[in-house]
Amino acid sequence: MNIHRDFSGIVAGVDADYKNLNLPTMQACAACKFQRRKCTADCPLAPYFPADRFREFRNVRKLFGVKNVLKTLGDLEPSKRRDAVQCIIFEANCRANDLAGGCYKIIAKMQREITLLEAQHRLVLRQLRFFRQTAACAIRSEFDFDFDFEDRIRKESCSLNERLTTMENGVSCSKGVTH
Prior knowledge:
Elements: E1 4-5, E2 11-13, H1 16-19, H2 30-35, H3 54-63, H4 66-75, H5 78-97, H6 103-169
Antiparallel strand pairs: 1-2
Helix pairs in contact: 3-5
């Protein structure tokens, strides 16, 4: 095998037999890269921390530690591990961005928003109830108005008849005095 290296350490030439081997090149995951060890195919953290997520792994390791993460993942069902890792990464990144508050500030802000939205929802329901009652009263009053109008006409016609009768008899309805 004939290998020539130039002064910068880059391989300048490789024998033809060595090129045709097609060996799979596995890049170390972020966890193995951080710990400076060779990443194996059965690395438990490789699926969750590929090589390009080094910063996230560093934050997780700093907050939780590798052993605690491995223990947590080992205690979970395989179907729930990805969600757990996403939560761990989220919390670690929040803590890295805000050392004092971490994800607590985000949770508190969301709880305030939920409280505000619930209050707005109650207000809208109250307004809706008010407008429905107003519409129902308006509809009822239209019908009541028609009935009241007929009653009023009947009463007025009766009172007119009474007035005419009293006038003929010489008695005033309003004062009860004769003319």
